[in-house]
Amino acid sequence: MINEYMLKFLMVYAFFELYEVYWQKGERVIDMLVRIYKYYEKSVFLVLVMHPTFYFTIFFVMFTHYNIYALILFVLKGVDIVTKLILVKQVFIDKKITDDVAMMLSMSLGNFFPYIGLMIYLPLIYMALIAY
Q1: C-alpha–C-alpha distance, residues 51 and 16, integer Å
Q2: What pLDDT was estimated at residue 31?
Q3: How many of the other CB atoms lie within 10 Å of CB of 22?
Q4: What is d(CA 124, CA 21) in angstroms, rounded to the nearest whole number?
Q5: 1 against 108, higher pLDDT
Q6: How many other C-beta atoms can be found within 10 angstroms of the C-beta atom of residue 66?
Q7: Which of 82, 85, 109, 122 suits a disulfide with 113, CB 3.0-4.6 Å?
Q8: What average pLDDT does this structure show over 31-44?
Q9: How far is CA 99 from CA 53, 89, 91, 104, 122, in A?
Q10: pTM of the model
Q11: Would you give the distance in Å from CA 57 to the centre of its chain?
Q12: Residue 113 has what DSSP assignment?
């Protein structure tokens, strides 16, 4: 059963996740990386600030007393951000990409893929709150 504070956590996280989808969304992976690189050029710290779900996750891990589901959420968000930063560095700074990465960058994301985080992360928040 979802009570009021659970609903507030879920709604805040969903809002932050939708914000991240909004500023990163592109038709292909390379389009998403181009949008991230625009902020990366100014400062890598700006890119990190543009991920409010990561800061929410840090707070949430502490709030739930290091619940396993919250820790899984933290690791997934961390890996997500680090992967994007590594790809930005490889593509735009080092300009060294393999054929496989080049093929992946040209792949279409479709309409559904950018929102997959909502379907993965929100249940983790719910499970962490239930276990808390």
Answers
A1: 8
A2: 94
A3: 9
A4: 18
A5: 108
A6: 11
A7: 109
A8: 95
A9: 32, 16, 12, 9, 35
A10: 0.90
A11: 11
A12: G
Residues written for the chain:
132
Q: How far, rounded to the nearest angstrom, does the alpha carbon of residue 7 sit from its chain's CA centroid?
A: 20
Domain locations along the chain: 4-131
Instruction: State the CB neighbour count (10 A cutoff) for residue 75.
Output: 12
* Alpha-carbon gap, residue 110 to 123, rounded angstroms: 23
Number of CB atoms found within 10 A of residue 68's CB: 12
* DSSP alpha helix (H) spans, 1-132: 4-24, 29-42, 44-49, 52-63, 68-88, 99-105, 116-131
> Which pair of tokens denotes residue 95?
């300009």
CA 105 remoteness from chain centre? 18
Tokens matching residue 122: 């929100």
